Prior knowledge:
By secondary structure, this protein is mainly alpha-helical. The protein contains 9 helices and 3 strands, in the order H-H-H-H-H-H-H-E-E-H-E-H. The protein has helices at residues 5-40, 43-69, 84-113, 120-148, 151-180, 185-212, 218-230, 265-283, 324-328; strands spanning 238-247, 250-259, 288-295. A 3-stranded mixed beta sheet has the order 1-2-3. Helix 2 runs antiparallel to helix 3 (84-113).
Amino acid sequence: MVKPMHEHKDAKKLRIGSITFALIAGLVILALKFYAARISNSSALRSDALESTVNVLAAAFGLGSILFSEKPADRDHPYGHGKIEYFASAFEGGLISLAGFLILIDTLGRWFSGAPIENLGHGLAINLFAGLLNGLVGMVIYISGKKHHSQVLIADGMHLLTDLATTIAITIGLGLTLLTQWHWLDPVIALGVSGFLFWTGFQLVREAAAALLDAENPKLLKRIVDHFNQLERGKIITLHELKARDFGRDKHIDVHLVIPEFLTVKEAHEITDAFVSSLMKEFGKGSLIHTHIDPCAHAFCSECRYENCPIRVVPFRELKPFTIESSVKRGIV
């Protein structure tokens, strides 16, 4: 059983709507932060405004990637277009790191030029308001990304939430500057923001690269194995050689099923069809499920519940639950 087409279309509209909302909100927040930086002449507030520039660029690129990822599989892209979302995530990580570098250069230049701070209280209030608005948008985008399995929305939401954390840290630091008149704190805070952005961007690029290189995803494997353990096994004795990778919101799952070797081809086909349908229901109609059938070869009698088996050599003892280790193991014994 697969998800109804209208549900797929609704999810698509919500993903596109979410990233469009992030783009429009990002432009408003960017204008507020640059105004706050302009009237205060603060390096720390300028660093926050530069980070918001990345938010807008990332949202624009994210909108394009979501539209591209929604295209169905075709002759040139038989596995679909979902992985573009990881390119978008890596692109955003690169932009964040670039923002960190630009902030570093800008801050050092202003530090040596001795640019004075003005209207810091007013600018700080405007910047804090923009940051809180950014956090609200980030929460909405992140929740939408988790719900609809969109890596672009998840990455964008995480970035906006880290942006809020940056704004709060800047507010606390500059508030201390207002109280103490230690103006040297302003460039120090900006340099701290620069380092934080370098680290955040690196993390996003690393995660996206892992997905693009099909690195093992323990969370995805656990979700799949947990689903296996909830299924009625029927005539499936065990499984092995499980492999799984992300294609944006969809998954690609390969697994070998061990069944009684005396069953007919038709019976084996019916068993695997039912198994694949259960996975499609769980992971979405766009997911690719590939199965391979292995004969039992008398190796699993002790965990096979098949009654009246004509080739059984030892009695049934216990039904072993699937684990990640047993499921990914190569070979049937």
